[in-house]
From TrEMBL:
Keyword set includes Membrane: yes
Source taxon at top rank: Eukaryota
Residue ranges annotated for the G-protein coupled receptors family 1 profile domain, each copy included: 41-293
Chief localization: membrane
Locations listed in the record: Cell membrane; Cell projection, Neuron projection
Keywords for the protein's UniProt record, in alphabetical order: Cell membrane, Cell projection, G-protein coupled receptor, Glycoprotein, Membrane, Receptor, Transducer, Transmembrane, Transmembrane helix
Gene3D superfamilies assigned to the protein according to its UniProt record, in alphabetical order: Rhodopsin 7-helix transmembrane proteins
Membrane topology listed for this record: Multi-pass membrane protein
GO cellular component, one term: neuron projection
Protein name according to UniProt: Cannabinoid receptor 2
TM regions (residue ranges): 26-49, 61-83, 95-120, 141-163, 183-208, 240-261, 273-295
One Gene Ontology molecular-function label: cannabinoid receptor activity
């Protein structure tokens, strides 16, 4: 079939299996590498949080655990479904296909939703420093996660529950996903775009507050001396958040763009193949998330090292770290402070202890050492 040919009709799922052999090899390699890696690192994060009592009590780490769980689902559902369909050409019926697609949709929707909860947690940590522990309790965090996953499951399996294309595989059905109604696809893409916009807004406000706070401290304390060689914390924060947003937008924007195009025009085979490649970037995003949100947190790394030390000692290995019980409470400070952040992020400026930002500015008590 010529590359420019538009799909005008489809008798079975084969009209969606448009990859050439070289494309199958490239995309299959990405899935075979990124899938297991994504599963292992996110399962590691989940295991550390589940095995450490101190982390399980913190709303910040509950949100990170939710993100890791969603990315574990993504590594399983997306990798198996994608390879099964595009590489091995499995021809499922409507029920089986929509169930698999629902699992993939649930994983990625839960991942983006968890990113939003993490961003809101960091926003509250900066903008509601004095009342953070009152505003975001563990109970409220669990309720937020329950609401997120309930909405995610409902939205993801709507096609399986009946909201599917009335013409089966023929136009005006989606040319990216069999049996999917254009209206459902448009609603889902709009929902994800709203979540991404809220994430961008939350991090923009965090950066704005950090920049204003750093400028206030510079005015009160004077210009840094030559011995203070550290980069301004708001600049380090900008670099960190810029990296987060660049990866998130870079991985999601191409995929969502193809979905929006699918709603309005009939895609060619070449565009279908391009979408297949872009969709693997969502899996790459799930692989990068633990490196950006979890493993850069000092407390989680400490918990990981202690857990590994305990396991090594249990196996009779000689380790530098003394083994501890997996449920031992780590010295992580107050039980509900927001500290699930990397050293270069704004919550290192404000630890969400009883002092507000303005009080710390007034007293010139900003922690400028924290590494």
């Amino acid at each position: 079939v010529p590359v420019s040919t538009v799909n005008r009709s489809c008798a079975d799922l084969k009209c969606y299996m448009v990859l050439f052999e070289v494309e199958k090899t490239a995309i299959g390699s990405i899935c075979f590498l990124a899938g297991p890696f994504t599963f292992l690192e996110n399962a590691l994060v989940l295991g550390v949080i589940a095995a450490t009592a101190a982390l399980r009590q913190r709303p910040s780490y509950l949100f990170i655990g939710s993100l890791a769980l969603a990315d574990v689902f993504a590594s399983c559902f997306f990798t198996t479904s994608f390879l099964d369909f595009h590489l091995f050409h499995r021809l499922d019926g409507p029920i089986a296909y929509l169930f698999k697609l629902g699992g993939v949709t649930m994983a990625f929707t839960g991942s983006v939703g968890s990113l939003l909860l993490t961003a809101l947690d960091r926003y509250l940590c900066i903008h509601q420093a004095s009342s953070y522990k009152v505003v975001l309790t563990r109970r409220r965090a669990l309720l937020a996660l329950l609401a997120l996953w309930s909405a995610t499951i409902l939205i993801s399996f709507l096609p399986l529950m009946g909201w599917r294309c009335p013409t089966g595989l023929s136009p005006p059905c989606s040319r990216l996903f069999p049996y999917i109604d254009h209206r459902y696809l448009a609603c889902w893409v709009s929902f994800i775009l709203v979540l991404l916009s809220l994430i961008l807004s939350a991090y923009a406000l965090i950066l704005w507050r950090a920049n204003r706070h750093e400028s206030s401290m510079t005015g009160l304390q004077g210009a840094p001396t030559g011995g203070q060689a550290r980069m301004r914390l708001d600049i380090r924060l900008a670099r960190t958040l810029g990296l987060i947003l660049l990866i998130m937008v870079g991985c999601w924007l191409p995929t969502l763009s193809f979905m929006l195009a699918d709603v309005s025009v009939q895609l060619t085979h070449a565009q279908q193949r391009a979408f297949a490649f872009c969709s693997t970037m969502c899996l790459v995003n799930s692989a990068v998330n633990p490196l950006l949100y979890a493993l850069r947190c000092r407390e989680l790394r400490v918990a990981l090292m202690r857990l590994l030390g305990g396991l090594s000692e249990g196996l009779g290995c000689c380790q530098r770290h003394v083994g501890v019980d997996s449920t031992t409470t780590l010295p992580l400070g107050e039980g509900n402070s927001c500290s699930a952040h990397s050293e270069s992020e704004a919550p290192r400026l404000v630890s969400c202890r009883p002092n507000t930002v303005s009080e710390m500015v007034g007293k010139q008590q900003l922690d400028m050492t924290g590494k």
